Amino acid sequence: MSIKTATPDQTLDTLGRVCPYPLLLTKKALEKLASGQTLKVLCDAPASAEDSIPRYAEKNNMGFEAVKLEDKGYWELYIKKG
Amino acid sequence: MVSTLVFIVTGLLIGAAFGYVLQRGRFCVNSAYREILFQDYTMLRAYLLAVAVTMIGANLIEDMGWLQQHANEDGVMVANELYRQGFAPFANIIGGFIFGMGIVLAGGCGSGILYRVGEGNLAYVLAVFGFFFGIAVTKFGFLKPVYDTLINYQVSVGEDMVPTLNNIIGVNKWLVIAVIAAPIFYFVYTGKPFQKAKKGYSWSMAGLLVGIIAVAAFWFSDYCTGRARGLSFTGPVREFFLAIFFGDAQAAEAETMKILGVSISWSALYVLAVPIGAFISGKFLKEVKLKVPPADELFKVLLGGFIMGVGAQIGGGCNIGHSLTGVSTLAVSSWVANLFIILGNWTMVYFMLIRPMRDMDI
Question: Do A46 and B26 count as a contact with CB atoms less than 8 A apart?
Fold first, then answer.
């Protein structure tokens, strides 16, 4: 099942935050989650949404999916803790 | 002297191309340095690739005699050289360190804060204002005595030669370039470059294009102003705002033109165009949105921009002027400043990001 269709265990809003806070807040939120839980992150910093956060998830063997909401100008990122 | 049209168009084009590539490639020297601490070398590879390309390209156009000619003191026509900054050890070290701390607070480096204005985050507008404010108080205002004292102590090779990595050890320039570039290319290669990115540019494409634009900037700055100043942001941001505030960029006469009664430098034009290029790229990718962070973060970013400005003016440049353009000319000043930019960056990352994160882990 796709990560993004499941109900997220937590939603983190990083809209407007400057680099590198979206990544840091995401890391912090993930630390508090248990294995197998899902975090949904709202992010409008392009470099964080498409670069640093996915890379962090990949390196830590976490599931990652992203939806770019082009009309709203931000991303919904879904990260499943491994 | 080139025509006003060429002067304006090339300045704006170089800036727009740079902003476009930075936005699309998410190129950021601040993250390149920061992520070393977290064992992620992707952005570092992009940055180093840009340095290697700029170093080879810029020195090539210099040695091929592709820069303009000028008469030397004996009246003989000689080709221009790349602009290399004099070595002011105290200024380079202290300024570099301060600048390195500032970019962490501001959430972006000299080029980063400019291009992100084009993405619509108002925080970066404040960062740019803070940056100019810091530059201005250091160059003209209450920090001027500090600046003058630090910049006053200069070290040269022989009578008046600017120290470079090659002339202090007395070897051929290309030997030094080969010794630096070869490991960089190997390091870049181990990161598996030029795989297709999902969106935008891959890190390697971003690094390559940044390098090519930096080389082009050397040539165009020489072509338009008679001085191969290359790409930098500290002086140009200052000149841009001075031109707006006072109608005079206060740059060397050869580097300026009077446009609608305003004396503006070629470099100030590309400063104006960087956010425009980033805006165009962001529009295509549908990533431009007006946004604003919480108040405490806005304040931090403004303060960070100010600290960046103080550091950059004292140290003689930012992460582009020193860390890309300057190091490519092999000027010792830029290598020293760049080292201390990295140390300043790491110091601030520790106090602002690593320590608070650790404390929250419990």
Answer: yes
Which one of A13, A17, A19 makes the best mutation probe of the B interface by having the most chain B beta carbons within 10 Å? Answer: A19
> Which residue in this structure is represented by tokens 């050869």?
B254
pTM of the full structure: 0.93
Q: How far apart are CA B221 and CA B7, in angstroms?
A: 9
Backbone φ and ψ for A13, nearest 5 degrees, come out as: -105, 115
pLDDT at B362: 37
Calculate what percentage of chain B has a pLDDT beyond 70.
Answer: 98
A48 vs A43, B115, B121, B301, B335, CA distance in Å? Answer: 8, 15, 14, 17, 29
Residues 6+ apart with CB under 8 A from A68: A49, A75, B286
Return the pLDDT at A1: 61
DSSP A16: T
Q: Which of A13, A15, A17, A18 is most worth mutating to test chain B (most B CB atoms within 10 A of its CB)?
A: A18
Distance (Å) from the C-alpha of residue B313 to the closest C-alpha of chain A? 24
Residues of chain A with pLDDT under 50: none
Phi, psi of B63 (to 5 degrees): -75, -25
∠ CA B302-B324-B347, rounded to 5°: 50
Mean pLDDT of the region B279-292: 93
The pLDDT score that the predictor gives to residue B353 is: 84
A17 and B294 within 8 Å at the Cβ level: the answer is yes
Least confident of B66-80, B166-180, B325-339: B66-80
Kindly determine whether residue B31 and residue A19, on different chains, have CB atoms separated by under 8 Å: yes
pLDDT band at B199 (very low <50, low <70, confident <90, very high): low
